[in-house]
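Milestone M4 deliverable, item 7.
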Amino acid sequence: GIKNGVKGESGASDDELTSDVLSHYSSASETTSVLEEGTGGEQVDEQTAQEETEDKLKQCIDNLMDKSRSRVAATGLLLETAVRLLTERRLTVSDCLERSLKKGSGEEQAAAATVFSLLCIQLGGGDEAEEGFKMLRPILTAILNDNSASIPARQSCARALGMCCYVSAAEDGEDLIKSLALLESVFMSSYPNREGTLPTPKPGTSGLHTAALQAWSLLVTLCPASRLSVLLDLHLPKLQACLESSDVNYRIAVGETIALLVELGRDIDEEFEVDDSESLCQCLKSLATDGNKHRAKNDRRKQRSIFREVLHYIENEDFTEEKIRFGVEGVYIDSWIKRRIYDAFKEIMESGVRHHLQFNPLLRDIFGLGPPLILDATVKGNKISRFEKHLFNSAAFKARTKQRNKVRDKRADVM
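Output delivered:
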């Protein structure tokens, strides 16, 4: 393990290795930026930069077998990049992730679960992703069910189970039902008891319930109509009660899930209505206008915004459409189903989601974008460089300043 990594070669400490990995990723990003935009300076050899990045990634995969801190650093770089190398060495990566999930700290387990989600997305679903999911699913399940495991690790495992099942086992009804049941067992502990009272959440469990509920709602979008009817009858009344939860993020996740379930219900039955809809709308109105001062200002603003959207949809089937732009394309988020799917991918890939929307066949298929576009040299050549933008903005600023100065001089003469 150690002889394969940087530490065995240079004698560097774990802290130095972490710094080296992160600084390399930063410099690689800067190099990419220069290559894309061009500043008129010295031309960088793109092939050399790519080879250096791949060498570093190979080194990081070796470091996954090293000591804990080195593994966390290596996992961090893999978390930021999803490239061809991961696909080529998927078995090695899967074995190392399995070791991290079994023997790592809570931080390492959380990172490994997220990297596994990225690997499944990079593999584009299919047999390879399904094979990896079947291998790591028992470990993810064990961590999620382990009350002694760290909350961040359990949250990350909940998201990984939802995402990996979504992209790799969508056509396997048995896997889908098992994953739904597992996630339900986590967030249903937040449901009211027989007396109708919400349980007092233990520290950190609200975040776990939120992650499990969001992963569950992602998988619900795959369910057939017969299964959906059962889920709607079981969960909608209980979720309405959870709108009174003391945790703002869980309340928001519950509100969005209710809107998603109602949309799915209306898709299978145009006459679908929520039981006691008047009470639900009254609760949503209260949350959409919540002005309690004991809550943080940002929390109140976020809650009011989300619950206004949920209320408008429940009452009028009105959804606030959003367009996500990437490259020369864009995708319209025009339903709660699409929003849940997009948010799930964004949570895993963060800023990389736009890149995947542009080039990843799996995401493009999910959002109905067709094959990746191939832009010809003319389009690429017409892209304005950062240096040209700077010159243009400077000239425009000077012209604007001169014009305004003339106007100011006239005002002075009049006065």
